[in-house]
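quick one, two chains, predict together pls
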Amino acid sequence: MKLVTWNVNSIKARREVVSLYLDEHAPDVFCVQELKMPTEKVPLDLFHERGYEVAIFGQPRWNGVLIASKAPISAVHKGLPTVDEGQARLIACETMGLKLVNLYCPQGQSAESPKFIYKKRFYDRLIEWINETYSTEEQLILTGDFNIAPRPIDLYDVHQFINVPTHHPEELSRWQQLLDWGLVDLGEEYIPDGEFTFWDYRRGAFQRNMGMRIDHFLGTYSMVERVENARIIRDFRKKKNGMTASDHAPVELLLKD
DNA sequence: ATGGTAGCACGGCTA
């Protein structure tokens, strides 16, 4: 089966590009972040026409996450209790025998920003909630836009990220806590070092390959042996038929059935 | 040079 994560930067602006991706790459399970739309306005036909069931946690203007699956979806959970502040950043469900958490983690702006304090609080609560809700014995995957580049090689220039969000020690320690709980970065072994999932729109970052690997799959140990491959579909960071791309590329995880 | 680009929604915030 093919599991995909993609921060689309508005499902409204990206409707045609997302259609193209679904038709060309046919994921079985599709996790989307940054819908930038309230739940009731998300174009369901985009998914229903292609045989997907869909669970949506939307919000006007910002954030918003969605899971689409070719198989039935059950046990849908929306939101990370007590730290949401009205922000739609987490949706979880069960589908295809997997427990799945789709995340859009806060970005943090700068180390001095209140947004960075919020990012740390979000991660602290996430670690707690995962521990309360799941067991390491389960077939569990956390995926989405973590806004953390875990290794120096996951940034185009680590020297520009000394004490800067996405590679700050205070968030790397929280990433490590997720690993210590019993999760593995499933993409790391398969994605070649120095490949990125995000490039800023500004300063020609994509053309200069100034990117970061911040979109991930974290799985329990029982998932590790099921992974066949992971890859970044870099081509979808390029303009398609004049349509602007998202600033993130889709990331695919292939699992043995 | 505190820049730059995109999206939401029409001024300013967020990334």
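The longest strand of chain A covers residues 98-104.
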